[in-house]
Amino acid sequence: MEPTLRPGDGLLAVRSSRARRGEIRVFEHPMRPGFWLVKRVDHVRGDRFEAVSDNPDAGAVDSRVFGDVPIAGSFRVVWTVSARR
């Protein structure tokens, strides 16, 4: 999620039954159980959303690979704290 979030940054996320374009969400990787991702919502389609990375130079580990993500079971990021001082 660089440059928005960098390694070591903290976040607080809450369960939310509604996703909105532009918000950041945390969810379990659909193809790798136990591996959690932090991505931005690009589009909402019914009860699913398209998750994209903020970093265009990063490899595609988003909806381009695993498709739309169910809103149920995902969390909306409501607060972040930078590890940088």
From TrEMBL:
It comes from the Bacteria. InterPro entries: LexA/Signal_pep-like_sf (IPR036286), Peptidase_S26 (IPR019533). GO terms for biological process: signal peptide processing. GO terms for molecular function: serine-type endopeptidase activity. Coiled coil: none annotated. This is Peptidase S24-like protein. It comes from Ilumatobacter fluminis.
